[in-house]
Amino acid sequence: MPKMYNSDLKTRARELRKNMTKEERHLWYDFLKTLDVNVARQEIMGHYIVDFYIPSAKLVIEVDGSQHYEDDGPKKDEERTRFLQDTYGVEIIRIMNTDVNRNFDGVCAYLQETIQRRIHSASPRSRVGDA
C-alpha cells in the first residue's frame, strides 16, 4: 500500500481513537480487537481517516452514523470510496450504527466472512505440481 497520507491528520486520528463513538467502541472491543489479524483504528489513508483498516484483507470498515445519509453525506462518501479504492485497492464496507446496535452478531458474522474471503483471495494460488 502506498504510504501517501496527510501528516497533518495525525493529531486528529489520535483524537478519534481516544473518542470513538459508542458503536465503534463496541465493534472494536467486542470483535475486531479479538481477531487474529492486524486491525488498525482511525488509520490515515491519503487525506482521509478511516474507522478501521485490515491490511492483510485490504479492507476498510466504516461505521456510519445518520450524518452519512443526510444532505451531501452520500456524495462525500462516494468520493471517498472512489479515492480509497483507486489509490489503495481496498474494499470498503459501510456498517450503520443501527446495525451495530440491533444486529451485532450478524455484523460480526458478515465481517468475519468478508475478512476471510478477502485474505484468501489475496493469498498466492498454489501452482499445479506444488506439494
- The helicity comes to 40-55%
Gyration radius, in Å: 16 Å
Rounded average pLDDT: 86
With strands numbered from the N-terminus, the spatial order across the biggest sheet is 1-2-3-4
* Fold-level CATH name: Endonuclease, Chain A
Count of extended strands: 4
> Alpha-carbon distance between the termini?
30 Å
CATH architecture: 3-Layer(aba) Sandwich
Principal-axes shape call:
globular
The CATH class turns out to be Alpha Beta
Tell me the name of the CATH homologous superfamily: VSR Endonuclease
Number of domains: 1
What does this structure look like?
- By secondary structure, this protein is α+β, with helices and mostly antiparallel strands.
- It has a single domain (7-120), classed as Endonuclease, Chain A.
- It is 45% helix and 19% strand.
- It is built from 5 helices and 4 strands; from the N terminus they run H-H-E-E-E-H-E-H-H.
- The chain has helices at 10-18, 22-30, 73-88, 97-102, 104-122; strands spanning 40-45, 48-54, 59-64, 91-96.
- A 4-stranded mixed beta sheet has the order 1-2-3-4, with helices on both faces.
- The protein is globular, with a radius of gyration of 16 Å.
- The model is unreliable at 126-131 (pLDDT under 50).
